[in-house]
Amino acid sequence: MLAGVVRRCGVTDPSAGGIHITAYGSPGGRWSRGNLTYNVNVNGSGLSQADVDGVMVNAFQQWRVAAPFFSFMQVGGNADIQIQFGGMELDNGFGQAGGVAGVGYYPESPSQGRLFFNAHEGWTTASLLSVALHEIGHVLGLSHSTSRLALMYPYDMHLVALDVETIRAINGLYGWRPQIPFDDRGSTEGPSLAVAPTVSLVGGNNDQLYMAWRGVDGDDAIYWSSLGGDTWSPQKLIPGIGSLHGPALATGFSSIPVTGLFMAWDGVPGDDAIYFAQNPDPRFSDWTDQKRVDGVGTSGRPALALFNNNMHMVWKGAPGDSAIYWSWFDRNTWVPQQPIRGRGTSDSPALAVLGNRLYMFWKGIEDDNNVYYAWIDNQPGAIWQAQHVVAYTDARTEGNVSVNIGTSHGPAAAVRGNAIVLAWKGVPGDTGLYFASLENDEWSGQINVAGVGSSTGPGLATLNGRLYMVWKGIPGDTGLYYSWLE
Fold first, then answer.
1. Cβ(137)–Cβ(170) under 8 Å?
2. What is the mean pLDDT of residues 288-298?
3. Bridge partners of 104?
4. Cα angle for residues 114, 117, 123 (degrees, 5° grid)
5. Cα separation of 399 and 324, whole Å?
6. How far is Cα 250 from Cα 272, in angstroms, rounded to an integer?
7. In the Cβ-directed half-sphere of 311, how many Cα atoms lie within 13 Å?
8. Mean of per-residue pLDDT scores for the chain
9. How much is the pLDDT for 312?
10. Are 326 and 340 in contact (CB under 8 A)?
11. pLDDT tier at 22 (50, 70, 90 boundaries)?
12. In this structure, which long-range contacts are made by residues 386-389, counting pairs with CB atoms below 8 Å and at least 24 apart in sequence?
């Protein structure tokens, strides 16, 4: 036990990973339903029934507000969550005061719903509230944090309210809306998303989300659609163009009060060239005629991002070439392509802009399922920084370890607030979709988006605070789906 530490949590984190404030994930488990009951046995607490009940009502109410997926009701007898006070008969760490104060068991396990407190502690309502909040976090699926300022830090539990990052963690685990299928469109590849901001002349904005994708097997055409409110417009064919892997879509150049869209794609089967087009005002305009990017080729979908007032593009090389190249468009011409030293991929990369940096994310070559990232700043003479593997910290009372994420396809990236959100399909054999955040140069742990799956990487974008994700179905399912996280 650390010197000077009063209370600690007895929960042992699972080996799959950990939850970390500024680096959070969902390795502990997840409830498949949100209407939960709890029962309180106050024997051994040293407090009255009314005091303990009041603490638990407070604690569960805070978690309910943070995660509206849940409702909690106190009952007598059998309940989803059983709360008890005791000694070593409940947990081996409960033999004395000043050690393990509480234990909460993760959901979807034989012990799910058990929440135990050490009867040897001299409980007050304040100390019980802080430990209860922490242990309920485990009962709902969260594991430990690396931050001493966070509710889920395993030592010296003292907070009596949920902090911002803990709220973000629980919302990431339970906040995704159930998937919604599109009934009029399909694809053999994952779609792309981008926002076209529009500033109203009378104030405010009317930003709009757009999606672009290629057709199903045998249909190399490219289609697009827009989201108005909670309804997507009917799909619309972009005439005269086609792609093997589908297009990349990005916010385009600004023409006040409208910012248009920019699109790039590889050619149809047998054509490794890269093409691009623009739409200056997608509310009313059509796409410009396609143009070819001279002297380049790819075997995947390129990636686009508007950075430093220029449209930047990165892509994997032509078939047989796993190198990553980049260029930028100065509104007239693309500068000659440049290989990025020491980088390689077997799929499509992703780009995102945060602050004064352009970030790139990519899967490794062939059987390397790691995801890597690097960035370049906006200063004259800037060069790409060294690559890093996307890895998060697994926090345990015994020490921290680093855990790599993995994928079989290229990831997607979007900026949300002060963080970059990365989304990806799992490793070969895992059709699940996952996401994590990069903030202050630290990665969150991966969170699985419950109940969804794909055979390719998803598309990702943020609009008015919502994080939207679109994806193709699992192998054999060419349908397209979407969801969002508030």
1. yes
2. 97
3. 115
4. 150
5. 37
6. 21
7. 26
8. 90
9. 98
10. yes
11. very low
12. 386/342, 387/342, 387/343
Could you tell me if 311 and 254 are in contact, meaning their C-beta atoms sit under 8 angstroms apart?
Answer: no
Q: Which of 460, 365, 472 is nearest to 419 (CA)?
A: 460
Q: Coil, helix or strand for 250? A: strand
pTM of the model as a whole: 0.91
102: left (phi over 0), alpha (psi -120 to 50) or beta: beta
Task: Tell me how far apart the alpha carbons of residues 463 and 156 are, in angstroms, rounded to a whole number.
Answer: 39
pLDDT per residue as tens digits for the range 33-71: 999 999 999 999 999 999 999 999 999 999 999 999 999
**Chain length of the chain:** 486
Distance CA 84, CA 48 (A): 14
For residue 446, pLDDT beyond 50? yes
pLDDT in tens, 385-415: 999 999 987 766 667 778 899 999 999 999 9
Give the integer Cα–Cα distance in Å for 251 and 237: 20
Report helix, strand or coil for 399: strand
Whether pLDDT at 2 is above 50: no
Give the pLDDT score at 156. 76
Considering only CA atoms, which of 268, 290, 270, 269 is closest in space to residue 278? 290
CA 154-159-164 angle, 5° bins: 90
Q: Does position 471 have pLDDT exceeding 70, yes or no?
A: yes
Whether residue 419 is predicted with pLDDT greater than 50 in this model: the reply is yes
Asked whether the beta carbons of 226 and 210 are under 8 A apart, the reply is yes
Side chain identity, residue 421:
V
Q: What is the mean pLDDT of residues 246-274?
A: 91
Give the other-Cβ count within 10 Å of 205's Cβ.
11
Write out the H or E segment, with its range, that includes residue 415.
strand 412-416
* Dihedral class, residue 204 (left if φ above 0, else alpha if ψ from -120 to 50, else beta): left
Ordered structural domains, the chain, with CATH: 8-174 (3.40.390.10), 180-485 (2.120.10.70)
199: β partners? 205
pLDDT value at residue 27: 54
Contact between 286 and 264 under an 8 Å Cβ cutoff? The reply is no
Classify the C-alpha dihedral 174-175-181-185 as positive or negative. Answer: negative
